[in-house]
Amino acid sequence: MYAVVEIKGKQYKAQEGKYMLVDLHAEHAEGTKLEFPVFLLSDGEGKVSVGKPHVEGAKVTVKVMESLKDKKIRVFKYKRRKGYRKTMGHRQNYTKLLVEKVSS
Questions:
Q1: Which of 54, 69, 62 is nearest to 33 (CA)?
Q2: pTM, 2 dp
Q3: pLDDT tens figures, 23-51
Q4: Which region, left, alpha or beta, applies to residue 25 given φ > 0 means left and ψ of -120 to 50 means alpha?
Q5: Residues sharing a CB contact under 8 Å with residue 50, sequence separation 6 or more, in sequence order
Q6: Are the beta carbons of 99 and 21 closer than 8 angstroms?
Q7: Distances 34 to 6, 13, 67, 103 between C-alpha atoms, Å
Q8: CB 94 within 8 A of CB 26
Q9: Are β-strands 59-69 and 39-44 bridged in parallel, bridged antiparallel, or unpaired?
Q10: What distance in Å separates the CA atoms of residue 47 and residue 60, rounded to the nearest whole number?
Q11: If residue 48 lies in a helix (H) or strand (E), which one and from where to where?
Q12: SS3 of residue 3 by DSSP
């Protein structure tokens, strides 16, 4: 069984026993259990439920595993013929979640 869940304005596919990388949830410590009630789609035993806009009575229970960073992305910009060059970097922060239960 899987579900499409909305977390902080983004959509993620949640499947029981699998991990999800979502944008940083710094306010929650490791080991904290969270529930996300906003389902957009649910699929279980061949029955697909599409929400209009959300599936009623459905929720996903997850456990916060750890906070981590993605690899560094380099951004380079320059102006031609002027000698202007600038290099910037960015590392995205993520929270790793373990999907414990998907109930519809």
A1: 62
A2: 0.81
A3: 998 889 999 999 998 788 888 777 888 88
A4: beta
A5: 40, 41
A6: no
A7: 13, 16, 15, 14
A8: no
A9: unpaired
A10: 17
A11: strand 47-50
A12: strand
Range of the domain at 62: 2-103
* Terminal alpha carbon distance of the chain: 10
75-95 pLDDT, tens digit per residue, is 999 999 999 999 999 999 999
Q: How many domains are contained in the chain?
A: 1
CA distance 97 to 60: 11
Closest CA to 4 of 104, 80, 98, 85: 104
Q: Are 41 and 49 in contact (CB under 8 A)?
A: yes
Location of structure tokens 């991990």: 19
